Amino acid sequence: MRHRSIGELMTREVVSVRGDVPFKDVVRTLARHGVTAVPVVDSEDRVIGVVSEGDLLRKTADQAAVPGDLPAVPGLSEEERAKAEGTRAEEVMSAPPVCVTPGWTVVEAARLMEAQGVKRLVVVDARDRLVGIVSRRDLLRIFLREDADIRREITEDILGGTLGLDPAALSVEVSNGRVELGGHVPYRGTIPVIERMCATVDGVVSVSCDRLGRESDATGPGTTGLGTGGPGTER
Prior knowledge:
Layout: H1 6-9, E1 17-18, H2 23-33, E2 37-41, E3 47-52, H3 53-62, H4 78-84, H5 89-92, E4 99-100, H6 106-116, E5 120-124, E6 130-135, H7 136-139, H8 147-162, E7 170-175, E8 178-185, H9 190-199, E9 206-214, H10 215-219
Parallel strand pairs: 1-2, 4-5, 8-9
Antiparallel strand pairs: 2-3, 5-6, 7-8
Helix pairs in contact: 3-4
C-alpha cells in the first residue's frame, strides 16, 4: 500500500516573485495569473516566504481609517503593523514559509496543512529551491481515483499482500469510493484490522465490513476445528 506523493500532485509551473518586487506588482501578478498566493524567492530561487491575498489585504484594512471615521484595525502586533505598512514583497510576506519536499505523502501534507492552518504548501528541493506548490484542492484529487484502482489496491496489496488472506474467500465492491467487503476470514479479530487498513487507501470515502464474518460463522460448530470447544476455538 502506497500513499500518493506530493510530487505526483503538485503544480510544477509556479508563479513566484522576488523579495524586492513592489506591492502593486505583487497584486498585478496575482490578478494576471488568477492565483491567491505566490512564493517569494531570493536570487538563487530559494523560497523565503509566501505572499497571499490575506497578507495584501492587511494594507487595505489598515488604510480604511480616515479622520473622523473608524480607527485603524485594533490589536495588530508590531510585526503585523509593519506588514500593513510594507511596500515590497519581502515586507508583506508571511515567513518562514511552510514547505514540504516532493517525497512527502498526501497524508503527511494534509496533517501539516491542518496543524499550520495554511491553504497551500510550497514544495522545495534539498537546497530549498522552489520546485512546485500544492494546495488543498490538489490533495483532494486523490478522491478522483477510479473505483477499479481502489479495488485492486485493496485486493492485491492489503488483503493478499499485507494480510496474506485468500482474495477468493472475500468480495470487495467499490462504488464512488465507498468500499463494501464480504466473505469470511479465519479470525474475527482480523475484521477491524482490515477495516482500518482499507480506510487509509487513497481515494476511499468509507468502508463497510457488515457482510464480512469469521469462517466458523458460516461453517458452524464442529467443522474445520473452529467450532465451540474445538482445538481452534477463538478466545
